[in-house]
Design goal:
By secondary structure, the protein is of the alpha+beta class. Helix content is 27%, strand content 27%.
Length: 257
Amino acid sequence: MSSIKTPREVKIMQEGGKILSEVLWEVIDSIKPGITEFDIEKLADRLIREKGAEPAFKRVEGYKYATCISTNSIVVHGIPSDYILQQGDVVGVDCGVFYKGFNTDMAETIQVKSSKLKVKSSKTEIDRFLETGRRALEEALKVAVVGNYIGHISKTIQDIVEKKNNYSVVRALIGHGVGKKLHEAPEVPGYLTKKIEKTPRLTPGMTIAIEVIYNMGSSEVVIGKDGWTIASKDGLLSGLFERTVAITDKGPMILTV
């Protein structure tokens, strides 16, 4: 059963979400050729603490980092390493904040580019791939309204990623409820397995992390020897976009803008 939050609890999550958004966008802006994944991790950890919050991921049993860094074929849960980011790499940063007893969760994926390169060029396949994930998330957030079902979110993501663009939604990984725990009910898949009306109904006070987790190639994934890192089985690029949203009578309240 989904955990319904009071208006006061949603307000706390909104405050935590603001901290997380500020941190993640500052981290994303720092990414350039020559920095390491661990540089990203250290910056995120420091910023979260400076803003009076706690890294949510470090509260997960067995995990020691504030972020998950997913570079190129890594889908999710990539452990930050000393890998030096190169021009053209695709890197996703997943981060969570624990603030006043509540979690928020957010992720963004970009292509690493040098700020020195000012020459305009036509869109590449990587540009189109990342634009697809962003658009799928944007449209999924729009249908996160009272009276709709989780299935409306799932269908929106799947239609944009697979039917319109021929990429693959990863089946092994899904979005989730979020609140006092980082992962709560309900499950929020990026694909449909049943009739929309058979999925949980969206009601005021629900807080969910909507995730677009998708691959350029096959949807199949493999888990690494570290027990955390999940990569695309075919070695092709993967993308991750995520926002925490509260379901309200006035429409979706995006807590991690």
